[in-house]
Each structure stands twice: as structure tokens, then as C-alpha cells.
Amino acid sequence: MKDGDWYRALILSAEEDNYEVLFVDFGNRDKIDPKFVMSLPSNLELNSSPALAVKCEVNSSDMELGAVHKKIEKAADGTYLLKIEAIKYENGVHFVNVY
Question: Do 44 and 19 fall within a single domain?
Fold first, then answer.
């Protein structure tokens, strides 16, 4: 990878010069060069070590989504502590409030 580390990912699509991948422990997607793709050791496969990222949907009735995004950005750079409250789980998605 660009930073020299390796991350678990699922290949979503493959073209000759790049793969679109989903990083299963972070939840983000990116296009990467195929030379940075290799098979996982068995102890890191998803059936033996589940993904750390979970799909969430923010309940926007309590707060404008723009305000939620700003809080998430502050939390990512370490200047804000988020409180996340789970409301329900439905069809593989966690519905949450963000404070």
C-alpha cells in the first residue's frame, strides 16, 4: 500500500491496471494497483477473523448530517470524542445516533 502496510480487503471489481477494494476493517473503498494484492493467511481470513468495520446509518432526525460529518472529522483527528448510540439493527445495517 501507499504507506507500506498491508490491510485486509475484498476485491469489488477488477480491471487490468487497478482493483476497487473495500477495506473490511476500516469500511473505506479505494482503487489500488494489482501488485499490492495478495492472498490472506488462513488466520486472517474473514471466516476466522471477522471484519472490524460495520455498516451504519446515522439517524438524522436528531441532528443535521453536516453537523454529524463535522463531529466525525474532529474525532478522526483526535480533537473530539464521539458518543454513538445504537438504535436498531436491520438487514445488516446498524442504525445509530451520534452525539
Answer: yes
End-to-end CA distance of the chain: 33
Please tell me the pTM assigned to this model.
0.66
* CB within 8 Å of 67: residues ≥ 6 apart: none
Q: Do β-strands 84-90 and 93-98 pair in parallel, antiparallel, or remain unpaired?
A: antiparallel
Are residue 65 and residue 20 in the same domain, yes or no?
no
Per-residue pLDDT reduced to its tens digit, 47-91: 888 888 888 888 766 567 778 778 888 888 878 888 888 899 998
The beta strands (E) that lie in 38-98 are given as 56-58, 84-90, 93-98
Nearest to 99 by CA among 88, 89, 87: 87
Q: How, if at all, do strands 29-32 and 9-14 pair?
A: unpaired
